[in-house]
Amino acid sequence: MIEKIRHYQDKCDFCGTCVAVCPHDAIELAEASLQILFNRCTLCAFCIQGCPTRALEMSDESAL
Amino acid sequence: MKAHYDVIVVGGGPAGSTAARFAASRGAAVALLEKDREIGIPVRCAEGVGEHGLASLVEIQPHWIARRITGAVLIAPSGAEVGLSSNQVGYVLHRKQFDYDLARMAARAGVEVYTKAYVQGLLMGKTGVTGVVVEHLGTRQAISATLVIAADGVESRLGRWAGLDTRCTLQDLESCAQVTIANYDGDPAVCRFYFSNESFPGGYGWIFPKGDGMANVGLGIAGVKADKRCAHDHLEAFLARISDKPAILSRVYGSVPCSVTLKTIVTDGLMLTGDAAHQANPLTGGGIVSGMIAARTAGQVAADAIADNDTSAQRLQEYPKTWAAGEGGRMNQFYRLKKFVFTLSDDAFNKIAKGILELSPEKRTMTNIFKAALINKPSLILDAIKLFK
Questions:
Q1: pLDDT digits (tens, 9 = 90+) for B179-201
Q2: Any B CB within 8 A of A40 CB
Q3: Among B221, B268, B298, B334, which lies 20 to 30 A Cα-Cα from B247?
Q4: Kind and range of the H or E element at B61?
């Protein structure tokens, strides 16, 4: 599977904002890990915009 | 952990601990599950709270209080400062101690508290939600419950798993960033609130003193206005404005659902409370008191419903009805004001500040500020008068 939204572990505060705005319940968050479920993700990018630290970014693969 | 509880509360913040405590004190067997390793951390909160609201819920303990607050200053985009006339007192809390004590009070009431207990799914049966799947200390287990209370915060997923729409729109999300600094030289008894569409689009900046030169300095911006710069970027600019060399001891990010309460907060076997139900004050983003008020009712209704042997959505309606008739109704009024405030241009903010500064100091009240702001929106003036009386 091609990853389309990239998560930067070092920028992330694991605050859950991305989970709160995701319309598709496509983000799994634990104490210090975050996983995007790409079988649910539609690339709406709400998570990218809501993130207080820009720890999520569109990756190149999605710009095709 | 037992195989069954009357009530499982998910989330060990103020709402979760309060719901658990009230359910247990009415006789229910309750487990409180917190995903992190410790209650109270990380503190994703500006820690401000009004005395009146908090005192209505718990006996306020001195060690919860970082600083007693007796004043508030609003800062317009022009830099004009409006000191508010109010005899209301507030506190900046030590949230970690506060959350610890609320969990301790729940434990004293008979609640079993578990940390590092990460809920990964719901058990569903004919009667709706029938329990949770939890990973605790490396063991994954199914625990049944007559009723589940989801107090799992802005990032709530429990409601979604039960078929409720708990997501927050970018329009109503406040994306927040905050630091705690150790070299604040402003008045330690005064909270400061900054407004500007440029610096705090769709939100505001704050300085909440914690005493001994400490202060929480942060901001929230509307998610919908975060396309160019994120909350972190705005905070860096804000810090540069207020301090030459901020000594930053802590840095935290998070968000608040600043919407009206979710339309549906109960379903068969499940209730939502606190940020998970979008019960924070949508104008200020403050969610401690309102969340606890809701959670108290949720806990009481939970225990009563279990005693009645009926945890259907219909039986649980008592909770949303009580909320809507009280604090929830006020939150709807705050939402209407918020929608209006965040349409104001910087010019409008500056004009309002100028007008208020022409009044004598004792007339510089929130009610008068809103009266001036709402001159073309008379339908909202009554809301403001009721909310700030």
A1: 999 999 999 999 999 999 999 99
A2: no
A3: B221
A4: none
Provide the domain count of chain A.
1
- Is B254 in the A-facing interface, judged by CB distances under 8 Å? yes
d(CA B90, CA A7): 39
Decide: B211 and B185 in contact? Cβ < 8 Å. Answer: no
Provide the β-strand partners of residue B179: B217, B251
Amino acid at B367: T
Q: Are residues A50 and B223, on separate chains, in Cβ contact within 8 Å?
A: yes
Q: By the CB < 8 Å criterion, does A36 face chain B?
A: no
Domains B4-44+96-168+261-325 and B68-91+170-258+332-389 share a fold: no
Task: Decide if B177 and A46 are in contact by the 8 Å CB cutoff.
Answer: no
Indicate the pLDDT class of residue A61, thresholds 50, 70 and 90.
Answer: low
Q: What is the CATH number of the domain that holds A43?
A: 3.30.70.20
CA distance A40 to chain B (A): 14
Architecture field, domain B4-44+96-168+261-325: 3-Layer(bba) Sandwich (3.50)
CATH for B68-91+170-258+332-389 is 3.30.9.10
Task: Flag whether pLDDT at B153 surpasses 90.
Answer: yes
pLDDT digits (tens, 9 = 90+) for B73-108: 999 999 999 999 888 899 999 999 999 999 999 999
- Among residues B182, B179, B298, the alpha carbon closest in space to that of B239 is found at B179
A40-58 pLDDT per residue, tens: 999 999 999 999 999 999 9
**Contact (CB<8Å) A50/B257:** no
